[in-house]
Design a protein that fits this description.
Layout lengths: L13 H37 L4 H5 L2 H15 L17 H10 L1 H4 L6 H19 L6 H24 L8
């Protein structure tokens, strides 16, 4: 199958824009979706046990809590829009999730031994994630980096499920 070029590198045609969009969704977007949601579930599941079921108030920086609250209020003010989720963790982006992991690395490390390496991996896709989230076409290096981080998350999650070290809880 031939690769789909970024529509911005070709003569404009509406079909090129649509082909680019379908390609980004099929090749990249779904992996970012999985990574972000694996990360949310993983953080929530570990911190619910290591801190308490109300870990959010105890383990998250007040500035990040306020950011989530502000986003939540925007959705509450517009109830006709889809709500991102019932837990505040769904109102955060990768940078915030990484900050929660970094600040609580001592609590995550018994489960994820190389938590600092995971924070670095997630940081390595933060900008490419924004490229995709803002409806742009990632380059081949960014796609490859996303592929690697996705594959690594799949392995981590499979290992944790198989070892029964963690009871996954969807926030």
């Amino acid at each position: 199958m031939p690769s789909v070029p970024d529509y911005r590198a070709t003569v404009f045609a509406t079909t090129s824009v649509c082909r680019s969009g379908r390609n980004v969704g099929r090749v990249v977007y779904w992996k970012l979706y999985a990574i972000e949601n694996y990360y949310r579930v993983l953080l929530h599941s570990i911190l619910s046990v290591q801190v308490s079921p109300s870990w959010w108030q105890l383990a998250v920086d007040p500035k990040i809590q306020l950011k989530a609250l502000n986003f939540r209020q925007q959705y509450t003010a517009r109830p006709w829009h889809t709500n991102p989720g019932s837990h505040d963790i769904y109102y955060l982006d990768l940078r915030d999730l990484n900050e929660i992991a970094r600040a609580n690395s001592n609590l995550l490390q018994p489960i994820i031994l190389d938590i600092d390496a995971w924070v670095a991996k997630v940081e390595s896709i933060r900008l490419p994630r924004n490229i995709v989230a803002h409806m742009n076409f990632p380059n081949s290096r960014d796609k490859a980096r996303i592929d690697i981080v996705y594959t690594d998350f799949e392995k981590l999650m499979s290992m944790l499920v198989a070892s029964a070290n963690i009871n996954f809880q969807v926030p």
